[in-house]
Amino acid sequence: MDQSRHKLFDSVLGGLLLIGMVVALYMAFLGAPREQTMGDLQRIFYFHVPSGMMGLAAFIVNCYASLMYLIKKDRKWDSLALSAAEVGVVFFTIVLVTGPIWAKPVWFVWWTWSPRLTSSLVLWMLYLAYMLVRNYVPDPERRAMMSAVFAIVAIVDAPIVFFSIRWWRDMHPSAMLETGGLSPAMWPAFLTCIAAFLILLIYLIRRRYFLESARLEAERLARLADLAR
Amino acid sequence: MLGKIWAVFQKDLLIELRTKDSLNAMLFFGIVVLVVFNFALESTRDTIRQAVPGVLWVAFVFSGTLGLNRMFASEKENSCLQGLLMVPMDRGIIYLGKTLAAAVFMLIAEGVIFVFSLVFFNLTVWAEIPYLILVFFIGTLGFTAVGTLLSAIAVNTRMREVLLPLILFPVVLPILVNAVEATGIILNTADYRALKLPLTIMTTFTIVFATLAYLLFDFVLED
After folding, report:
1. Structural domain for B156, as ranges
2. What span, in angstroms and rounded, lies between the C-alpha atoms of A184 and A196?
3. Can you give the pTM of this predicted structure?
4. Chain A 3-62, CB below 8 Å of chain B: which residues?
5. ipTM attached to this prediction
6. B74-118 pLDDT, tens per residue?
7. A163 touches chain B (CB under 8 A)
């Protein structure tokens, strides 16, 4: 696709995102029924869970892009890996902020070291570490290489972290989704939110990717200008 | 291949034995950590045995990080790394040799720190020692398997010594959690069958990351 088609695609995506977010807000706050025991508090679920899903998806994109960079050594894969990691960290930050807000009134504690909570926190830290690696390598080629290697270490580590603490007692409501315990009346709102967040994920990664590409291009031109002088 | 690994290992061992740069620092830092924890946990003197596994492993990994930091930093001086890279062999060999050296230094430090902890925390262990050695051994191998790779990454950055712990500790968390768990089982319950799960996870972690690092090491050292 050439530049103008990319622009058009992004505009369409942006329009869809606007509509999707408004619909998602309506569905989550007004469309979905009130939960019996938790009341309106449960509505945070419609933002918490989709954020977590999109965060995970972003980290998988990051891993794929890193692998492709190691194979092809093409800078565009590195830009994609960076964009996905940054967006993933943003989504996981939302997860880690909305979680305690919900937990305080329901569990009476902000935080507990349960497997899900701990592994989410560690995952978030792993990708912050990834951004640190990027931050501190001055040479662009080397930065791409080092961060790609670290990205693979991080994604391999994530399931081991999860399994190594899995036998701890878990109070996080997971069974609700896995056993289909979510009330049928809540599904439309939940699915709308997932769709809206998916568009947000794609939109953000795309925007960040084009920003990074533009930055690389500016860097290249500045180098050329330096040479010409 | 084993001969080459041994050669890299021997080189590092010889340098360390001549200079004693990192080993001195590792030992001293580990003991300092023990002393600091002793004051931090003063009020809970009766339950100190419960806290010892955690304290021990914090001391181990802190002093181990100090050693890992020097692993490649010393190679950068006088362009020793270039010399090492010119040797016609698989780069993974350098990784294995270095990991072995790092693990041996760490195990030496751990032995000394452990003896100090026995004195400081008034512990008596005899029957437990073979099991403890097993846990220390696997835990250290797992820690250095990742640590050596990340140390090679960190040495490329502007903030070498600062960066390594920041990127290493989140990754080695499974080792830390299970090593503390296993050490706790040995010291506090003596129910050795319960050791199976933490040891399995630590061994899996070590094998997975040693293989991964062996494959990826080439990219990290590329000039």
Report:
1. 2-221
2. 19
3. 0.91
4. none
5. 0.91
6. 888 777 888 888 888 888 999 999 999 999 999 999 999 999 999
7. yes
